[in-house]
Amino acid sequence: MSTDYGVIRTDDGLPRVSFERVLDAAIDRVWALLTTEEGLERWLAPASVELSIGGTMDIDFGDGGVVGGEIIDLEDGRSLVYHWRFTGEPDSVIRFELEEVAPAVTRLRLDHRLLPPEQAVGYGAGWHAHIDQLESIVTGDGKIDWSNRFNELLPEYQDLI
What is the pLDDT of residues 42-98, one digit of tens each? Predict the structure, then answer.
């Protein structure tokens, strides 16, 4: 599990969380984990994906709520941007960007902007725990307990504000 913390900052009065993580995996493998139903279910939640500009990304966190979003930018194998419409929250925007830094080594950048101010800390800890899960899958270390990891990280993200 990584101690590479995300950055929480404010742009135009609204928070954003950003992460950068180098993963020991080929870019096409990471891309598949970000953009396919099978991949997303392994590290994030069950999803329905229509991978095209104007297509949808629907992610079902069960009792935690549902995200329904429209893809607004897509560069195959490189970047994905979509609206994050989470139950009970104003719309925000998430961007995933990949860069091959060496054979079988990929830099992942995640930027989630226009967050509700009262949710920024939770999104910081939540995305950190999910990226740790993603990293554990690509390294073959197995699944982590997302809820426990989130609860470990939450006080540390509260200290970042």
Answer: 999 999 999 999 999 999 998 888 999 999 999 999 999 999 999 889 999 999 999
Q: How confident is the model at residue 161 (pLDDT cuts 50, 70, 90)?
A: low
Separation between Cα atoms, residue 144 and residue 151, nearest integer Å: 13
CA atoms of 81 and 95, how far apart (whole Å): 4
CA–CA distance, 70 with 19 (Å, rounded to integer): 22
Q: Which residues lie below 8 Å from residue 118, measured CB to CB, with a gap of 6+?
A: none
Global pTM? 0.94
Provide the CA 56 distance to its chain's centre, in angstroms.
16
> At 77, is the secondary structure helix, strand, or coil?
coil
Three-state SS for 115?
A: coil
